[in-house]
Design a protein that fits this description.
Blueprint: H1 2-23, H2 30-56, H3 61-65, E1 72-76, E2 79-83, H4 102-113, E3 118-124, H5 130-136, E4 141-147, H6 151-164, E5 169-172, E6 182-186, E7 204-208, H7 212-216, E8 223-227, H8 233-238, H9 241-247, E9 250-254, H10 265-271, E10 276-281, E11 288-289, E12 297-302, H11 307-313
Parallel strand pairs: 3-4, 3-8, 4-5, 8-9
Antiparallel strand pairs: 1-2, 6-7, 9-12, 10-11, 10-12
Length: 316
């Protein structure tokens, strides 16, 4: 199997090289061929990266992604994304045609498809727009708003929104937390998917933060709230208390080895109104359970919301 993969890789590289030579006969081909070599390598490694992580603990796709120097349009599960080399490592598995968090996409699809409609989807920490673009493609979702402080990521999101002609999607270049104040934040493109208000920035700038309560005022609609902000999830929830009390949204928040340095599930329970139930989102299949020993994302669902019966059907 391994040798077949190597042969196929060499064959694909050969075909791409021949195509480039035919297209650019007489031009300087070295740069084009090197670029295509790294691009094809990144695509192929993206496809096998989950296997390498699962069986060997090796996540090396970033090595290939960093070597792609040209912007491209890629397709992931029917949606187009503007690949920007400045934030290349944020694309992860996407060059291989799959989303970085397939279990979360599966869960969201199950929830959306089992309800009459969702008025608002809010994505806090949108990065390159993986969820913004996917969720905005659902007819049942009325409006999609993403929040992302990193400008290179925002530009990538805007390009992808344009490529897909998504009128309902919007990206706001803002950092959300529990208060409005100046915050020093990493604005570099390198490893933009891991930037946090808690870690020393490589290239910093002062950004004025906002809160969900300030952004949405008295909005009262059926809503889903997705929060992935590298350890600051509890701060975002603290700044969304009025919104949550009023809308009792379906909430997905990151809770993993990074998150546990800064908050606990008990902290989250204290921030949420009574009536919320918390589940683990299972990485292996996109279903829910109550085993909190090894989590990546968790889901909070209010027992009086229309989301709860749907969630309960997904509990294993």
């Amino acid at each position: 199997m391994f040798h077949c993969g190597i042969i196929r890789y060499i064959h694909l590289l050969y075909l791409e090289s021949v195509a480039l030579i035919d297209k650019h006969a007489g031009e300087n081909l070295v740069g084009d061929i090197i670029e295509e070599f790294w691009y094809i390598s990144a695509v192929l490694y993206s496809k096998i990266n989950p296997f390498m992580i699962r069986h060997f603990g090796m996540d090396k796709v970033g090595f290939f992604l960093r070597r792609i120097k040209r912007a491209r349009t890629i397709e992931v599960e029917g949606s187009l994304f503007g690949f920007d080399p400045e934030v290349s490592t944020s694309f992860g598995h996407m060059l291989g045609g799959s989303f970085n968090e397939p279990e979360t996409h599966k869960l969201l699809k199950s929830v959306i498809n089992n309800l009459d409609g969702i008025d608002l989807f809010v994505d806090v920490g949108s990065n390159i727009g993986e969820f913004v673009i996917d969720i905005a493609s659902f007819d049942k979702v009325g409006r999609v708003i993403g929040f992302e402080p990193n400008l290179p990521c925002v530009k990538s999101c805007l390009k992808s929104i344009e490529l897909n002609g998504l009128k309902k999607a919007e990206i706001r270049q803002k950092l959300l937390k529990d208060s409005k104040e100046p915050v020093t934040f990493d604005i570099s493109g390198e490893n933009a998917n891991a930037h946090s208000i808690f870690t020393p920035p490589n290239k910093s700038d002062v950004i004025y933060s906002s809160t969900i309560d300030d952004e949405f005022g008295d909005v009262n609609v059926s809503s889903i709230l997705l929060i992935d902000v590298e350890g600051a999830e509890a701060l975002v929830l603290a700044g969304a208390r009025s919104f949550i009390e009023r809308n009792i949204p379906f909430i997905i928040f990151e809770y993993n080895f990074v998150s546990t340095r800064y908050f606990s599930l008990e902290d989250v329970r204290k921030l949420l109104p009574s009536g919320y139930d918390i589940f683990r989102l299972r990485v292996k299949d996109g279903f829910l359970d109550r085993n909190m020993e090894d989590t990546w994302n968790c889901v909070a669902v209010h027992k009086d919301s229309p989301f709860y019966p749907v969630a309960m059907r997904l509990v294993r």
